Amino acid sequence: MVAKLEGHGHPEYELTPVGVALHPVLMSLSAWGREYANPERRPSRILTHLCGTRLDDAARCPTCDVTPPPGDVVSTPDPDNPGRRTDRVSVALRRPHRLLEPVRG
Predict the structure, then answer these.
(1) What residues pair up with 13 in beta bridges, in sequence order?
(2) Element (H, E) at 101
(3) Is 76 in contact with 44 (CB distance < 8 Å)?
(4) Alpha-carbon distance 47 to 76, whole Å?
(5) In the chain, fewer beta carbons within 10 Å around the N or the C end?
(6) DSSP-assigned states of every residue in 15-71
(7) How many Cβ atoms from other residues are within 10 Å of residue 94's Cβ?
(8) Does residue 20 surpass a pLDDT of 90?
(9) 43 vs 23: CA distance, rounded Å
(10) What is the CA radius of gyration of the chain?
(11) Is the pLDDT of residue 89 over 70?
């Protein structure tokens, strides 16, 4: 599900097509967890399609009527639920970015 890439000074990993196909399943499991496992906890990220529409719990864009591939999904911190961690990765993730796009601190 992940392939290791060499040649960048340190190992990087990339999802295989099988890993990418799991995206809608993981979104559905996340929605289930919000509803049943921890209903008081707000999501810390907002996922939108490149068109700007927020994805539904099944990872579909209601405006475009598609389930976009992860590379066409933008992850943005929820302004009402800011992260509190201060490590380099958490700080880098405070900026909007496309899924599968490397985040550098």
Answers:
(1) 4
(2) none
(3) no
(4) 6
(5) C
(6) E-HHHHHTHHHHHHHHHHIIIII-TTPPPSEEEEETTSPBP-TTS-BTTTTB---GG
(7) 12
(8) no
(9) 17
(10) 15
(11) yes
The 8-class DSSP code of residue 98 comes to E
**Residue located via tokens 């529409």:** 53
What count of residues does the chain have?
Answer: 105
Phi–psi pair at 30, nearest 5 degrees: -65, -45
- Taking the model in full, what pTM does it have? 0.75
Pick the more confident residue, 19 or 2. 19
Q: Using CA atoms, how far apart are residues 54 and 62, in angstroms rounded to an integer?
A: 8
Average confidence score pLDDT of the chain: 85
Q: What is the pLDDT of residues 32-66, one digit of tens each?
A: 888 888 777 777 789 999 999 999 888 899 999 99
Non-local CB neighbours of 101 within 8 Å, separated by 6+ positions: 71
